[in-house]
Specification:
The two termini are 49 Å apart. The strands form two sheets. The chain has a 16-stranded mixed β-sheet that branches. It has helices spanning 3-14, 32-42, 55-70, 180-184, 187-196, 215-218, 222-227, 253-260, 267-277, 343-362, 384-391, 415-419, 442-455, 479-482, 511-529, and strands at 83-93, 99-103, 109-112, 117-119, 126-135, 141-142, 147-148, 159-163, 201-205, 228-232, 247-250, 283-310, 321-327, 370-376, 400-406, 432-437, 458-460, 488-492. The chain is an alpha/beta fold. It has 15 helices and 18 strands.
Length: 544
Amino acid sequence: MDRIRMIILLLAVSSCILPISGQKRGLKSIQTDELRAHMDFLASDELEGRSTGEAGLDVAARYLATQAELMNLETADEDGDYFQLYTLQERSYDLGNSNISIIDEAGNAIVDDNMFFLLPAIVKNEIEIEGEIVFAGYGIYEPDMNYNDFDGLDITGKVVLIMDRAPMNEDGVTSPLGDKWLGMSNFQNKLQYIVMQQPKAVVLVFDPKSGYNSIEEVNPGISDYLSKSTSMKKEEELPQEEIPGPKIVLAHRSVADKVFKHTRTTLAEVQEKIDTSLKPASFSMGDTKMRIHLAMQNMEMNVPNVFGYIEGSDPELKDEFVLLMAHFDHVGTDGEGSVFNGADDNASGSVALLEIAEAFRAEKKMPRRSIGILWVSGEEIGLYGSKYFAEHPLVPIENIAAVINLDMIGRIKTQEDIESDRSGLTIVGRDSVKVIGALQSKILMEINEETLAEMGLFPNYSYNKPDHPDRYFYRSDHISFARKDIPVLFYSTGTHADYHLLTDDPGKIDYGKFLKMTKFAFKAGMNTADYKDEITVDNPMSEW
């Protein structure tokens, strides 16, 4: 769907839902049918996964701003349109101008246009590496096991071509030389020796027995991850220095096939020879060279946060703000026509904020402090929206009394989650909520626990330690404010079997739990904003 059609759909939907009703009050104004209507729009295919920097995210932002205007939220931005724009810089591979060439001693070149990836990250606009080729088998140096793919080879200043994995038996799985061999098949272990020899580049290809030609066949989604980098545009750019050491190239196996055209054998035959004899079959290609040319392209994109607020009722405390926030971006499409709808992640938190804002507007009297409603973008690619707001707040940063973050609040644990082969799932049951935060303020923890009891929910604090190995305390937008010593709470129903998959769609939302979580978040915001005394910070993160 093109941009114009999406905006037409936006206006049509926004005009038919979320009417402001004077008869509704607070919690009663939060309704399942309204949650569902908002969800059906924000998590629809037409928004194309709300990827940061793409048109679908812009339409989602306009939708949220339109709803904020319908609810008469106050604006704090200069233009009075609820938008806070910030600029991201995206650097990506220029595939049309990048290739790997095999050049013989006469200067004749065979060009390979298949995609390749470089590690570590490239910081210059263009890079070109050229050097004599050395084939070093599996790239293993293990003298204790009397095996050395580099025996007799000088790889300093050369381009080293190696296969992944290690010699294997007829099953193609394990080496007859024992368990230690499995550790040596790890690419990082191989690099420890190779890097010390100071080659120009290390080119890794999948071995023929693996059945793979490229890393994209193993993980189709890794291309964008390896070929793009995004960063916040800084007012003053500091010069970047390239990381020293050889470049690591993850190449298509066709590159190795082109190299072996200059020999009397094939990569598959050499692999079989090594596996059968358990002896290296490395060699230098003499004057035959490899040229690796990577061109980069730069793009800037203006990205929106959306913010509005409702003024508090206390003449003094109304200058303080309790922010309720959620990220509204997701991860886009798979490039093959399917959409990552991100219904739970995080249309759920974004939709909840709409109902929460309406609930505050429906109250006869506002709490003592003002309520800020903040939708941020860029969470999925680096928490950029919340970082920008924390650095460039639309209200004085010292006046933000607390932040409540909602991220994935629409699911309950199902049999599918129990039977899933995905590790580390944190999804909770119908009457539970994953709670992270309130570590900086005993008062905020007390408000949190009182609200949980009031709303009949049981907290799961399993992931609330800053040193938890999964680091959930640092993995959502609240952390941008915690680092400013603002007390935070992060509520979630947890990661589930559909997390970051195409199946996270509106049909998987449990609206009973979603309704309960939205009402709970509203009540937590109300109780925090209406706290009559100072919300003190007795354990600031800056002192951890």
